[in-house]
Amino acid sequence: MKTENKLSVTEIANNISIQDMSELINIFSDRIDIFIGCVGNKEQNNRMQLSGSLSKENPSCLNGPILQINMEYTDEDNDFLSHYSKYIKST
Questions:
Q1: Centroid of chain to Cα 82
Q2: Which one of 10, 25, 50, 71 has the minimum C-beta count within 10 Å?
Q3: Pairing state between β 66-69 and 48-54
Q4: Domain that holds residue 72
Q5: Which of helix, strand or coil describes residue 85?
Q6: Is position 36 within any domain?
Q7: Calpha distance 80→37 (Å, rounded)
Q8: Residues 50 and 38 sit within 8 Å (Cβ to Cβ)
Q9: What are phi and psi of 77, to 5 degrees?
Q10: Residue 60, Cβ neighbours under 10 Å: how many?
Q11: How far, CA to CA in Å, does 16 sit from each of 9, 22, 23?
């Protein structure tokens, strides 16, 4: 419930600096997961979602005027591309 003394989320989002936005992402980084895509066969109902957590060392930072989100993806060999490169397409 909004009161006169509280800012709405929209008002905060419209007035926050990019540095503050990065700091908020860093604060909430342990509660953010990034969807990468799905692998497997939809018809055989064996699809698996790939996702990764934000980097523990540097979840977000400024890259010029842009906010950069840094992801950590780990699998048993720590080698994402060797396992999933056949699913990745250039755009």
A1: 22
A2: 10
A3: unpaired
A4: 17-87
A5: helix
A6: yes
A7: 12
A8: yes
A9: -105, 0
A10: 21
A11: 10, 10, 11
Cβ burial of 21 (10 Å; 0-12, 13-18, 19+) is: middle
Give the integer Cα–Cα distance in Å for 60 and 26.
6
HSE value, Cβ hemisphere, 13 Å, CA-based, for 36? 20
The torsion of the CA quartet 33, 39, 42, 48, rounded to 10 degrees, works out to -50
Q: How many CB atoms lie within 10 A of CB 59?
A: 21
Is the pTM here over 0.90, yes or no? no
Residue 57 lies in a domain: yes
pLDDT in tens, 55-87: 888 999 999 999 999 987 655 665 666 767 776
Structure tokens belonging to residue 22: 């990065």
Q: What share of the chain is helix, strand, coil (3-state, %, to 5)?
A: 30, 25, 40
pLDDT 10s digits, 15-58:
999 999 999 999 999 999 988 888 777 777 778 888 888 988 89
What's the domain count of the chain? 1
